[in-house]
Protein backbone atom coordinates (compact mmCIF):
# COMPACT_ATOMS: atom_id res chain seq x y z
CA UNK A 1 0.00 0.00 0.00
CA UNK A 2 1.29 3.42 -0.99
CA UNK A 3 1.11 5.98 1.86
CA UNK A 4 1.96 9.63 1.29
CA UNK A 5 2.49 11.86 4.33
CA UNK A 6 2.38 15.65 4.04
CA UNK A 7 4.15 17.85 6.64
CA UNK A 8 6.34 15.04 7.93
CA UNK A 9 8.20 17.56 10.11
CA UNK A 10 5.21 17.50 12.51
CA UNK A 11 5.72 13.79 13.28
CA UNK A 12 7.21 13.83 16.76
CA UNK A 13 6.01 10.71 18.56
CA UNK A 14 4.57 8.93 15.51
CA UNK A 15 6.61 7.01 12.98
CA UNK A 16 5.89 6.28 9.34
CA UNK A 17 5.63 2.56 10.10
CA UNK A 18 3.04 3.06 12.85
CA UNK A 19 0.92 5.22 10.53
CA UNK A 20 1.03 2.59 7.77
CA UNK A 21 0.21 -0.18 10.25
CA UNK A 22 -2.75 1.74 11.70
CA UNK A 23 -4.21 2.45 8.26
CA UNK A 24 -3.72 -1.19 7.27
CA UNK A 25 -5.64 -2.36 10.36
CA UNK A 26 -8.57 -0.09 9.50
CA UNK A 27 -8.67 -1.16 5.85
CA UNK A 28 -8.55 -4.85 6.85
CA UNK A 29 -11.94 -4.47 8.54
CA UNK A 30 -13.52 -4.47 5.07
CA UNK A 31 -11.98 -7.40 3.17
CA UNK A 32 -13.48 -6.48 -0.23
CA UNK A 33 -11.83 -3.04 -0.14
CA UNK A 34 -8.31 -2.81 -1.56
CA UNK A 35 -6.48 0.43 -0.79
CA UNK A 36 -4.59 1.78 -3.78
CA UNK A 37 -3.31 4.98 -2.18
CA UNK A 38 -3.46 6.60 1.25
CA UNK A 39 -2.73 10.26 1.90
CA UNK A 40 -2.16 11.59 5.43
CA UNK A 41 -1.98 15.37 5.94
CA UNK A 42 -0.92 17.23 9.06
CA UNK A 43 -1.48 20.97 9.51
CA UNK A 44 -0.37 22.99 12.51
CA UNK A 45 -2.62 25.76 13.85
CA UNK A 46 -1.44 28.76 15.87
CA UNK A 47 -3.35 27.70 18.98
CA UNK A 48 -1.35 25.99 21.75
CA UNK A 49 -2.14 24.26 25.03
CA UNK A 50 0.78 24.10 27.47
CA UNK A 51 3.21 24.49 24.59
CA UNK A 52 1.63 21.71 22.48
CA UNK A 53 0.30 23.00 19.16
CA UNK A 54 -3.12 22.13 17.78
CA UNK A 55 -2.73 19.82 14.79
CA UNK A 56 -5.31 18.92 12.16
CA UNK A 57 -4.93 15.44 10.65
CA UNK A 58 -6.65 14.29 7.51
CA UNK A 59 -6.55 10.71 6.20
CA UNK A 60 -7.86 9.92 2.73
CA UNK A 61 -7.98 6.43 1.23
CA UNK A 62 -8.46 5.83 -2.48
CA UNK A 63 -9.84 2.33 -2.90
CA UNK A 64 -11.59 0.13 -5.42
CA UNK A 65 -14.87 1.02 -3.61
CA UNK A 66 -14.35 4.80 -3.87
CA UNK A 67 -12.81 7.35 -1.53
CA UNK A 68 -13.04 7.23 2.26
CA UNK A 69 -11.77 9.98 4.55
CA UNK A 70 -11.42 10.92 8.20
CA UNK A 71 -10.42 14.24 9.77
CA UNK A 72 -9.48 15.06 13.34
CA UNK A 73 -8.04 17.84 15.45
CA UNK A 74 -6.15 17.61 18.69
CA UNK A 75 -3.24 18.89 20.68
CA UNK A 76 -0.26 16.96 19.39
CA UNK A 77 0.22 14.88 16.29
CA UNK A 78 -0.58 11.52 17.85
CA UNK A 79 -3.84 12.73 19.41
CA UNK A 80 -5.10 14.30 16.19
CA UNK A 81 -4.08 11.24 14.16
CA UNK A 82 -6.02 8.92 16.50
CA UNK A 83 -9.16 11.08 16.20
CA UNK A 84 -8.88 11.08 12.40
CA UNK A 85 -8.26 7.31 12.41
CA UNK A 86 -11.41 6.73 14.50
CA UNK A 87 -13.49 8.76 12.05
CA UNK A 88 -11.92 6.92 9.12
CA UNK A 89 -12.76 3.58 10.74
CA UNK A 90 -16.39 4.64 11.23
CA UNK A 91 -16.59 5.73 7.60
CA UNK A 92 -15.07 2.45 6.35
CA UNK A 93 -17.58 0.43 8.38
CA UNK A 94 -20.40 2.66 7.11
CA UNK A 95 -19.38 1.98 3.51
CA UNK A 96 -19.27 -1.73 4.35
CA UNK A 97 -22.76 -1.56 5.87
CA UNK A 98 -24.22 0.31 2.91
CA UNK A 99 -22.81 -2.28 0.51
CA UNK A 100 -24.20 -5.18 2.54
CA UNK A 101 -27.62 -3.45 2.81
CA UNK A 102 -27.74 -3.14 -0.98
CA UNK A 103 -26.89 -6.83 -1.36
CA UNK A 104 -29.51 -7.82 1.23
CA UNK A 105 -32.13 -5.68 -0.51
CA UNK A 106 -31.43 -7.41 -3.82
CA UNK A 107 -31.64 -10.85 -2.21
CA UNK A 108 -34.92 -9.93 -0.51
CA UNK A 109 -36.47 -8.69 -3.76
CA UNK A 110 -35.46 -11.90 -5.55
CA UNK A 111 -37.05 -14.00 -2.79
CA UNK A 112 -40.27 -11.98 -2.95
CA UNK A 113 -40.46 -12.49 -6.71
CA UNK A 114 -40.01 -16.24 -6.25
CA UNK A 115 -42.96 -16.49 -3.86
Q: What integer value in Å does the Rg equal?
A: 18 Å
Q: Enter the CATH topology name.
A: Double Stranded RNA Binding Domain
Strand order of the largest sheet: 1-2-3-4
Through-space gap between termini: 46 Å
Order of helices and strands: EHEEEH
Estimated helix fraction: 40-55%
Number of domains: 1
- Give the tally of β-strands: 4
CATH secondary-structure class:
Alpha Beta
| Separate helix tally | 2
Structural class: alpha+beta
CATH architecture designation: 2-Layer Sandwich
The profile of the biggest β sheet is: 4 strands, mixed
* Overall outline: elongated
* CATH superfamily caption: Ribosome hibernation promotion factor-like
Ranges where pLDDT stays below 50 over 5 or more residues in a row are none
Question: Can you give a write-up of this model?
Answer:
The protein is of the alpha+beta class and 115 residues long. The chain has one domain: Double Stranded RNA Binding Domain, CATH 3.30.160. It has two helices and four strands, in the order βαβββα. Strands 1-2-3-4 form a four-stranded mixed β-sheet. Helix 1 links the parallel strand 1 and strand 2. The chain starts with a strand and ends with a helix. The mean pLDDT is 83.
What can be said about this structure in brief?
With 115 residues, the chain is of the alpha+beta class.
Amino acid sequence: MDVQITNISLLDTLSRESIVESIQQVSDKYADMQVMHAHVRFKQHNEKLRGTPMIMSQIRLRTNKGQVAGTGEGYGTENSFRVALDKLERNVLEVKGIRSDEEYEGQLLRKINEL
